[in-house]
UniProtKB/TrEMBL annotation, chain A:
Family, similarity comment: Belongs to the ubiquitin-activating E1 family.
Name this protein carries in UniProt: Ubiquitin-like 1-activating enzyme E1A
Keyword Acetylation set for record: yes
Keywords, comma-separated and alphabetical: Acetylation, Nucleus, Ubl conjugation pathway
Subcellular localization(s) per the UniProt record: Nucleus
One Gene Ontology biological process: protein sumoylation
Membrane-crossing segments per the record: none
UniProt xrefs under SUPFAM superfamilies: Activating enzymes of the ubiquitin-like proteins
Main localization, broad class: nucleus
Residues annotated as domain THIF-type NAD/FAD binding fold: 14-308
Subunit architecture: Heterodimer of SAE1A or SAE1B and SAE2. The complex binds SUMO proteins via SAE2.
UniProtKB/TrEMBL annotation, chain B:
Pathway: Protein modification; protein sumoylation
Localisation per UniProt entry: Nucleus
Location of the region described as Disordered in the Swiss-Prot/TrEMBL record: 584-629
GO MF annotation terms: ATP binding; metal ion binding; SUMO activating enzyme activity; transferase activity
Top-level taxonomy: Eukaryota, Viridiplantae, Streptophyta, Embryophyta, Tracheophyta
GO cellular component: cytoplasm; SUMO activating enzyme complex
Name of this protein: SUMO-activating enzyme subunit
Active site (UniProt): 152
Domain THIF-type NAD/FAD binding fold: 1-414
UniProt: ATP binding residues: 3-8, 27, 35-38, 51, 96-101
Pfam families: ThiF, UAE_UbL
Length: 323, 629
């Protein structure tokens, strides 16, 4: 790390977290540029966390106007129509986030990340997407992987009271602290497309049922041209059909994708269970901090939380040959 | 909610977003700069204001229809009595000290209100649910009380850096800048050639002594002469490394030349706090200074205190946010450490130890807050069967970063929730009632306003409304040794100790014992039936303060034994603590692996046959007898 010291102001503000991850990590954080596309209950939690952590900049992209759905679980938007009327989510969230830490540059960028030029991504070290279709996620992930500089990619989704985080750090090397010193650790992450293409029968035993449920719903959304949160209970029969198709194609028993779980997600529609947002947003925050600072074992490569059983589980969905 | 700090801010926000309508929040603190990295409801402009009030205002901005009643007060105030707690459906703790946690636990038991406890440190955290009659209470698994060090370790035979810090803070700093009337164990007799007939207190400043001279005199006395005197006692050093006396002339020879030199090279502006570091030219709090630099800082800090903060001298207590005080304590501790062959520490590290600073980040608090609200909602729905405890780990254990565990049954020997008598081993001929009250009743039992009875006789109580003669009688009793009390306390006596505010009553059987181990039993009293063994915690004793440097997670999760595997199915038994150790959750496993307690047998369900970590599942029909319903 170069000799640039933290300012006295930074040292005072970040004292408690410097005691967790050290001064060097804090310096790296202060240089990191983050992009978040899609603002909902979960991603705003992430934004709050990353701004408090003291990154260099945070750019928000979400041109949608305020709706009841957008307001749910969102503590960044003042409940005052005179304030929010006619303004985009990214603008409003940006304003609030700046207050949390004046030392972080928070910007609102107009437009749709899916339509952006690839070069646009070069500005960023980390890209987080939420609320968009699988197709868009894959496209953005691919763009990130094509750039010369490594761009860490994360996708996060909360449905009802459960959720998923996907992590792609491409080829990642870091110093892992062990009891007898440090060892260089090398991880190889698959792209989102490659990960979900892995045949289900090749997956580790006892993979979280949420993994399969998400894939079934995603596939269905794709075929219907709908975004996360746009399905409802009416779609259950069709989703069950999709489940059968997928399970047959993958030679997997349908019991791995419980109907109750699918139903739960569909019934919720666009609704999030508010207490799950900080849990997912917190885990994502920690992961991004780890990736930027180079400290700590990053999770590879999927994370699931379900309030029903209270477990927060990491699933490694990658080809053994590529590890 | 009790606490509007790290967990509190996240919790209040999540409660509001989850639809809670009526929240009362108690917090006695005001906002500080170091809070702002995670207590996101607060701004720089709020520094100095009440946390509870500012938190409320911030939440109303995005959730105007919620009712939040803030209390800028100490939850231990008598106003927060059992009737107060009875108003609530659930109590959520976001505290940072054991004392308050125990207090709230007892009130919740008395009021019969479910309590959800939580704690975080760095990346670790946990949430536990306590429902009277259904689960253990917060104190069923004993929590370690803050560590105290034997006086002689601090004054004469330090072996760890923390001992040097305690010496620098509670002895030297207190002696120099604190209340002169306070008792102090520091060795103060002058010895360098002055009249040996009348012992003088070297800390008294002569009228002709300027600050420089005084500083040098103190330095040589505490680091040089005192050590020489201690070395004279051969017995002490028979099996210990001898300390090196340190004199200024050997460390900073140039000082002799600058006798009356004015070292004030810098022009300190009014708004910058006084700092010895900037005077001396050191800027990085993470650096470990040399003995010479530590000595420069020591002298400069002394000079600045006496020169620029004269008015405060005699009234100062150590404050971790007082830059000059931290510099002084760091340098003093380091010089002493150097003397005793203990490694030196940076200001940053020393400040953490001296100030009992808990390291903290926003993400863990956010996660824990979400988990608390999930449990709170179940409590409100009376869905007790599904309540659980959850641990947030730094390293995954069996793929899990968030690990649910079934709540434990109440401990039948818990003196707090099940009225079992305790046993106290004490020398009734040498220990006084005061010793008993301070070390056992207040410290170990955590009672604030105790009442002590022997049979029907009140031998002591605390209260503002006592009659003069009654109060005088109690004062007399305090200084008496136990056997000499009006109603003598000796082997076989049973005392009843009560705290009316906490509505807690507890019986203690007394057993006389002659000898106690000075190191292992510095209190000279042993309380049994409450805990078999206490975990050693690396905490600086701050006198009355009980805010521990032991991770908050440790305070709330001292599980003696965790989930045990169903041996029939898997054939192997592994404790949670072992699993965590194996998965590199060193800190978490230390927290969880404690000796004792055959009382805490739990049985849980296996979710899958190759999972030998026991977690909560959803199949009550296969549950064993001890599982909670």
């Amino acid at each position: 790390m170069d000799g640039e010291e933290l300012t006295a102001q930074q040292t005072a503000l970040y004292d408690r977290q410097i005691r967790v991850w050290g001064v060097d990590a804090q310096k790296r954080l202060s240089k990191a540029q983050i992009l978040v596309s899609g603002l909902n209950g979960t991603s705003v939690e992430f934004c709050k966390n990353i701004v408090l952590a003291g990154v260099g900049s945070l750019t928000l992209m979400d041109d949608r106007l305020v709706t009841e759905d957008a307001l749910q679980a969102n503590f960044l938007i003042p409940r005052d129509e005179t304030v929010y009327s006619g303004r985009s989510l990214s603008e409003l969230c940006c304003e609030s986030l700046r207050d949390f830490n004046p030392m972080v540059r928070v910007l609102a960028e107009k437009g749709d990340l899916a339509q952006c030029e690839m070069e646009f991504l070069d500005k960023f070290d980390v890209v987080v997407v939420t609320g968009c279709s699988l197709k868009t996620k894959i496209e953005i992930n691919e763009k990130c992987r094509k750039r010369a500089k490594r761009i860490a990619f994360y996708a996060i989704e909360c449905r009802d009271s459960c959720g998923e985080i996907f992590v792609d750090l491409q080829n990642y090397t870091y110093a892992q602290k062990k009891s007898d010193g440090t060892a260089e650790c090398h991880l190889s992450y698959p792209s989102l497309e490659d990960a979900i293409l892995i045949p289900w029968r090749n997956l580790p035993r006892k993979v979280s049922k949420l993994y399969f449920a998400m894939r079934v719903i995603e596939k269905f959304e794709l075929s219907e041209g709908r975004n996360p949160g746009e399905l409802s209970n009416f779609d259950l029969p069709a989703v069950l059909k999709q489940r059968k198709e997928l399970c047959d194609a993958q030679s997997l028993n349908e019991s791995h994708v419980p109907e109750t779980l699918l139903e739960r997600i569909l019934v919720a529609g666009p609704m999030l269970y508010p207490p799950v947002c900080p849990i997912l947003g917190g885990i994502l925050g920690q992961e991004v901090i780890k990736a930027i600072s180079g400290k700590g074992d990053p999770l590879k490569n999927f994370f699931y939380f379900d309030a029903a059983d209270g477990k927060g589980v990491i699933e490694d969905i990658s080809n053994p040959s590529s590890i | 909610m009790v606490g509007a700090g790290g967990i509190g801010c996240e919790l209040l926000k999540t409660l509001a977003l989850s639809g809670f309508q009526d929240v009362h929040i108690i917090d006695m603190d005001t906002i500080e700069v170091s809070n702002l990295n995670r207590q996101f409801l607060f701004r720089q402009s709020h520094v100095g204001q009440s946390k509870a009030k500012v938190a409320r205002d911030a939440v109303l901005k995005f959730m105007p229809q919620i009712n939040i009643t803030p209390y800028h007060a100490n939850v231990k105030d008598p106003g927060f009595n059992v009737d107060f707690f009875k108003q609530f459906n659930v109590v959520l703790n976001g505290l940072d000290n054991l004392d308050a946690r125990r207090h709230v636990n007892r009130l919740c038991l008395a009021a019969e209100v479910p309590l959800i406890e939580s704690g975080t440190t760095g990346f670790l955290g946990q949430v536990t649910v306590h429902i009277k009659g259904r689960t253990e209470c917060y104190e069923c698994q004993p929590k370690p009380t803050p560590k105290t060090y034997p006086v002689c370790t601090i004054t004469s035979t330090p072996s760890k850096f923390v001992h040097c810090i305690v010496w620098a803070k509670d002895l030297l700093f207190a002696k120099l800048f604190g209340d002169k009337k306070q008792e102090n164990d520091l060795f103060v007799s002058a010895g360098d050639g002055s009249d040996s007939e009348k012992p003088t207190d070297i800390f008294e400043r002569g009228s002709d002594e300027d600050h420089e001279q005084y500083g040098r005199k103190i330095y040589n006395h505490v680091f040089g002469y005192s050590i020489e005197v201690a070395l004279a006692n051969e017995e002490t050093w028979k099996s210990r490394r001898r300390p090196n006396p340190i004199f200024l002339k050997d460390v900073l020879p140039e000082r002799l030349i600058l006798q009356n030199g004015n070292l004030e090279k810098n022009f300190l502006t009014e708004d910058l706090p006084l700092s010895a570091m900037s005077s001396v030219g050191l800027s990085n709090p993470q650096d470990v200074w040399s003995l010479a630099d530590n000595s420069r800082i020591f002298l400069e800090a002394l000079r600045l205190f006496f020169g620029r903060r004269e008015k405060e001298i005699g009234n100062l207590t150590f404050d971790k946010d007082d830059q000059l005080a931290v510099e002084f304590v760091t340098s003093a501790a380091n010089i002493r450490a150097s003397s005793f062959g203990i490694s030196l520490h940076s200001l940053f590290d020393a400040k953490g130890i001296a100030g009992n600073i808990v390291h903290a980040v926003a993400t863990t608090n956010a996660i824990i807050a979400g988990l608390i609200v999930i449990e709170a909602i179940k409590v409100l729905q009376a869905d007790f069967q599904n309540c659980r405890m959850t641990y947030c780990l730094e390293h995954p254990a069996r793929k899990m970063l968030l690990m649910p565990v079934e709540p434990f049954e109440a401990n039948k020997s818990c003196y707090v929730c099940s009225e079992t008598p305790l046993l106290l081993e004490v020398n009734t001929r040498t220990s006084t009632l005061r010793d008993f009250v301070d070390r056992i009743v207040k410290n170990k039992l955590g009672m604030s306003f105790p009442l002590i009875m022997q049979g029907a006789t009140l031998i002591f109580e605390v209260g503002d409304d006592l009659e003069e003669d009654v109060a005088a009688n109690y004062a007399l009793n305090l200084d008496k040794v136990l056997v000499e009390l009006p109603t003598p306390v000796s082997s076989g006596t049973m005392l009843t100790v009560e705290d009316l505010q906490q509505e807690l009553s507890c019986h203690i059987n007394i057993k006389h014992r002659e000898e106690f181990d000075e190191d292992k039993e510095p209190d000279k009293m042993v309380l049994l039936g409450w805990t078999a063994r206490e975990k050693e915690s690396q905490v600086v004793s701050n006198g009355n303060s009980t805010s521990a440097a032991v991770p908050a997670a440790a305070e709330a999760t001292m599980k003696s034994e965790e989930a045990e595997v169903n041996a029939e199915i898997s054939g192997t038994k592994r404790k949670l603590s072992e699993i965590l150790e194996a998965t590199e959750n060193q800190e978490a496993s230390q927290i969880l692996s404690r000796p004792d307690a055959d009382n805490f047998k739990n049985s849980h369900e296996l979710e899958d046959d190759d999972d030998d970590l026991v977690v909560l599942d959803n199949y009550p029909e296969t549950s064993k007898k001890q599982r909670l319903h």
